[in-house]
Design a protein that fits this description.
By secondary structure, the protein is mainly alpha-helical. It contains four helices and no strands. It has one domain: ACP-like (Non-ribosomal Peptide Synthetase Peptidyl Carrier Protein, Chain A, Orthogonal Bundle). Helix 1 packs across helix 2. The longest helix has 15 residues.
Length: about 80
């Protein structure tokens, strides 16, 4: 799951995937803003036919937060 989220983030933010770790803070470490995060989640939703509620979005601080949410929801991306 991490590899797929990492690849999406790297493409979205135009970063080297090697710089994205589970501990990376999406805003602070990767330089994403709120719009970047929203676009990331929209891309995941579109590609995999899932819906991520706004309430969950508010809890995503690190890459691990996104991966954990997707794993808990049983999403197989």
């Amino acid at each position: 799951m991490f590899d797929k989220v990492q690849a999406i983030l790297a493409k979205q933010l135009r970063l080297d995937p090697a710089k994205i770790t589970l501990e990376s803070e999406i805003k602070k470490d990767l330089g994403a803003d709120s719009l970047d995060i929203l676009q990331l989640l929209m891309r995941i939703e579109d590609q995999y036919g899932i819906v991520i509620p706004d309430k969950a979005l508010a809890t995503f601080r690190t890459v691990q937060d996104v991966v954990t949410y997707l794993e808990q929801e049983g999403t197989s991306i």
